[in-house]
Amino acid sequence: MIYSRITGTGSYLPDKVLTNQDLEKIVDTTDQWIRERTGISKRHIVAENQSTVDLAEYAARRALKAAGRDAQDIDLIIVATTTPDRVFPSTACLLQKRLDRHGCAAFDIQAVCTGFVYAVGVADKFIKTGAAKCALVVGAEVLSRVLDWTDRGTCVLFGDGSGAVIIEAGDEPGILSTHLHADGAYESLLTVAGGVGQGYASLLDGNGYVSMKGNEVFKVAVNTLGRIVDETLEANQLEKSDIDWLIPHQANIRIIQATAKKLKMSMERVVVTVGEHGNTSSASVPLALDVAVRDGRVKRGETLLMEAFGGGFTWGSILLKF
Ligand code: ACO
Predict the structure, then answer these.
(1) Is residue 215 within 6 Å of ligand 1 at its C-beta?
(2) pTM confidence score
(3) How many domains in the chain?
(4) Are residues 141 and 249 in the same domain?
(5) What is the pLDDT of residues 177-193, one digit of tens each?
């Protein structure tokens, strides 16, 4: 039996910090409103001369170093992103060039905030079937570039950043399960409605920016994340008390608290970075994981539950022994 295991983590946040106080000068909002409704106090914003592949490269190199691996060891590159540098080639191919790694499979996955969970699910299957031995999986986003900075309902929620993991084949578990779901019936509740497939004109008139029915997204997210927790525990015949750490998608502190309550978990066992990072979409779970690994909270041998929910809607979970 081949198992797959995370052997290194890395992340990157751009230098520029945008606080709630900075946002008060841009839109009709207050620090208090943003903190009370979302838990966010600041977020990082990409520099003008940076793009998604730059953020991805930093996180990838840090993950490689943490795993004690060289770029030449990688035989699969998956980048989860909603904000790719180009229509094509994929950001994964651009990253592959930066890493000077030629020939291995490289592709992007687009599942919005659930992108990293989807990408790990795919990499896990590549490894467990013997198709790859050492995968680089990255979540990287420049959400600030698809925000309408006059829309207070969305621009206060998101931030830019990246996170990465190296996943390797081994004799011991590892990734115990991944569960991936989607329901496209909800496509209109959270969307960037334009896209090149509809012609460039479709991106005009605000359709190139995030639009969201926040209240409705919130309700579905809370219910759905509760269900995926049950599904994951049941599939692995585990009890809630078997989970050492919950590492959730960082969209809103109230959604995170609702999931922790469902798990009967104290917030001390939940990794929360939304206050400092905002919602970085597919980067949020690997960023939170890397923060908790590097500050010593998450230790080898512990059981981690990661979950995410995002546009599509898409949702999913990863259960693993770290
Ligand atoms: N500052 C001040 N007031 C605001 C702001 C703001 N930034 N944004 C909205 N408001 C106002 C609204 O206009 C509204 O005013 P009104 O009552 O006069 O009409 C009032 O605040 C309440 O608005 P609601 O949308 O009902 O506020 P709610 O409590 O639902 O909070 C929020 C909004 C934070 C967006 C919440 O619905 C939410 O977090 N939803 C989840 C969405 C999300 O996280 N999406 C990200 C991707 S999906 C995912 O990752 C889970």
Answers:
(1) yes
(2) 0.97
(3) 2
(4) no
(5) 999 999 999 999 999 99
